[in-house]
Amino acid sequence: MTLKWLLAMGGLLLMAFGTGHAASAPPGVTGEIVGQGGQRFPIAVSPLRNLGGNSAESARLSTGIADAMVHDLELSGWFKVLDRSAYMENAQTSGITLGTFDFKDWATIGAEGLVKGGFSVQGDEVAVELRLFDVYQNKERVGKRYTGRVRDYRRIAHKFVDEIINQFTGVPGVFNTRLAYVSNSGGRFKEIFVSHLDGSEKFQVTDNHTINLSPAWSPDGRSVLYSSFKDRNQTLFLFELYSGKEIKFTPRGGGRYLSGKFSPDGQTIVATLESGGNTNLYLLDRSGNVIRQLTNNPGIEVSPAWSPDGKQIVFVSDRSGSPQLYVMDLASGNSRRLTYSGSYNTSPEWSPKGDRIVYTGRVANRFAIFTIPVDGGEPRKLTAESFDSEDPTWSPDGRFIAFTSNRAGKYHLYVMQAGGDNQRRLTGSGGDDTKPHWSPRLD
Amino acid sequence: MKIRIRLAGHVCGLMFFCSLAACAPSVTDKPGATPAPRSDSDTSANDPRAGEGQRGGTKESETGSSSLKQMQEGKSSATPASSPLKDVFYEFDRYDLSADARATLRANADWLKSNPSARVEIEGHCDERGTNEYNLALGAKRAQAAREFLTTLGIPADRLSTISYGEEIPVCREPTEDCWTKNRRARFVILQGRSTS
Questions:
Q1: Rounded CA gap, B139 and B52, in Å?
Q2: Residues A193-251 pLDDT 10s
Q3: Which of B65, B126, B128, B132 is the best mutation test for A, with the most CBs of A within 10 A?
Q4: ipTM
Q5: How many Cβ contacts (< 8 angstroms) between chains A and B?
Q6: Are A399 and A353 in contact (CB under 8 A)?
Q7: Which of B90, B94, B133 to mutate to test the interface with A (most CBs of A within 10 A)?
Q8: What pTM did the predictor assign?
Q9: Pairwise CA distance, residues A224 & A227, whole Å
């Protein structure tokens, strides 16, 4: 499917804003835009005009906000951003509102969409206004004004790209999100980090010089659950990003928590507990107290993840003799085996749309990312087996998958469309970046 | 880092009929969007860097410290050649004991019988292939398999504790079968005078 303006939708969405209701797309227009045959939508992103306030930051902001938007638009795989050197106007003298510039300057270079904007800096604050224009129809599609701290300018760009994608698909983009992940930063310790997809606003969650693993976001995007060896015996910790508060989960009766994932409503956590060599799944409350035991097998039961309705979990068990994916209905406690092809299938995550499960599978002595329908069926391989790709995680809209891969030597984080197209590298630290978990949409 | 985002009044007003509800309030007002600085001070009592440092005797040095402590000190977690307790090795994705593994465990059991005060932590390790969580579980299985075999040979279970490091502390870092073979191991660390609980 090729990206096109939602012609009928544009007005509806704007009216929805105008009356103060949440903009929601009617059924049928929220289609995925995937497939190599799909043409990328040609769009131009002009550097922003300085609207007042002189600051040493001005030049950086003018191109910095535009660059951040270009990065996101390219990452989506849906847009072809026209090269800035072809732009005919002077961004600092031409208008940024409808009627104050000439659409022909943009139609001539092949742009069908156009982003223009301006900013003004006052002290540490920046005000930014951004507009999306339809070059063919000489129309404004959407305009927004943002204020924030100067150093957060990239987040403003992410939010407007999310709005651009909303204009085209009826569903906002996912660029104002973060990834939590594990990095050794080239050293021997594994620490937890969070950052935006473009690597900005990188924040180190742990700095305890041990091994920290399996970060998982709370559904409100305010906390990260992770497992750590920092108190020698591995267990889970729940870290609040904005207060710095942390809770340690201590299993009663001994044992070690290996990993955990929040339920979609944020009220419970499904966790793996190792005790006496056996690993089983437990339902915990937010403080780490056991609500109930979910599995009771002598083998390995790990890596649980929730269905979007919170009624089922998918997990890994070796009860058949090799690691395979199973789906458990929480109400009945019944499990069914999901994967039958391959001898090593792990690290599942349930699509936010509910229709497919993404996982890591071993093929030809390599690891690749697969998806499989939740009712079973033919797995779809998304990455090549000439290198390893592991630890997949869905974007909150289910249209993208982030993962780690050693295709460029070290393990770096990558993102691709849910069908496997447009695989792009996100991180390039000197070390190995692994175990990404995609945050919900953030404010 | 605060960021307030709202529809611009003037943009809104020009473009669409815009209510106060849509335009005026901040859509976002996240307090302290910059995460707070990390503090680990509350965990210092259990800091593994401190916790294992009390070497009661000389036995610990015979096997080396725990792999975590060795790693923290920038040392290899490989068992010294002089260690009286030898590593046990496993096949890929397996935790059953081969004939070689059982022979090694018998020798380890003999040493434990002649050193009845020694308490040992059995570490389960994996090669780098597969997912971290599965390998943590697999390492636990490997350590437990070694522990159970030692108890069948007459070593009291309360002298043997287990821990899994999964694939996290390899002794060999090349992506080769030779290296992977060395990493799929159970390692025995003497914890002189430590509780095994």
A1: 21
A2: 999 999 888 999 999 999 999 999 999 999 999 999 999 999 999 999 999 999 999 99
A3: B132
A4: 0.88
A5: 207
A6: no
A7: B133
A8: 0.85
A9: 10
